[in-house]
């Protein structure tokens, strides 16, 4: 059965898509296929490949503006997750009673595939990719979408998968109302994007918990029992789904936990128990034990064989820009963690490596509170090399916790400085804690420039 009743949203008429990135163009392609008149509007410039695709599909579009007279005639609007709820145009559409939904919500109407949905402040991409890899290794006809890869809508239009693993951000969840996840996962909730939520942690937690809305007793809800914000959220938000907590602190009857021999134990009612020692995992570090627990619970719910799970969890190679090993030069390891755009991600990165670390960090500060990093910086970081425009708060936060803090004027200079500060056995870690938009287009370009600079040493 489809995850949203087909008749809930208009099934014909004018579909307006706001934003012509991967999700917007995917929604436009699916809308055209389902018989809508489609109009795509982007306030910015549309990328060359997306413009060509819209032209070849015969889809009407505009860029560098929003023509309100046309947009306000919509029967339904699919909005890019980057456009905030508070935008005047969005407010106007809602006032007129025109449904404004996410691409995920729109596409879910047109598939009967099972949807395994993963959210969290940190670890989403790794857990999503690991889950996808594991299911694929197990012979499942599985697609990968959401905040990663090709858009969900495009795949619903062009492919025929039995299962989708979806990485879901809070911005996507904000525009999802009738969507139902067969398996919903909340990995953790730490302060991030609070500027989008009126600086209210409660509002951000509520957004994350939208992932469990509409779940039934036949569905699964997987979450970290050790995460304080998730624990508080459980008191506010209920679901009929079977709860499967995972924990490294306590044994759980149904779910996943770490036993006294450092084995991950996964127990789901009426399914074979799974155990694997954490030393055998390809992804090391405390945070990756959590990621493997979450992925393992999904795989076990899907009834994958224990042997397949073990082989997958032992052989998976991490995604680019997330604790990615770049090179070992002169006995110094260089690690690209450019995807670490918040403080909590940097905490996980520092926790993963032994002393001594030369930490490259900085960029566009999103109102970061660096306090949670101080103990790890004291214990593990011998020097900090700052990149980007917002360096004052990094200096203020860590001047008493590490011997050296220096500024750089480019990524190349930052890497050269770090290489001079490092000696054999050290780790040079790019883990910025900040957005990248001052020096780079995105975190991928930042990570690529880091890798180029390392290989030029």
Q: Please, could you describe this protein's structure?
A:
With 457 residues, the protein is of the alpha/beta class. The chain folds into three domains: 14-101, Rossmann fold; 106-315, Mur-like, catalytic domain (UDP-N-acetylmuramoyl-L-alanine:D-glutamate ligase); 324-455, Protein-Tyrosine Phosphatase, Chain A (Alpha-Beta Complex). Helices cover 34% and strands 21% of the residues. It is built from 17 helices and 20 strands. Strands 7-8-6-9-10-11-12-13-14 form a nine-stranded mixed sheet, covered by helices on one side. The radius of gyration is 23 Å and the shape is globular. Residues 1-6 have low confidence and may be disordered.
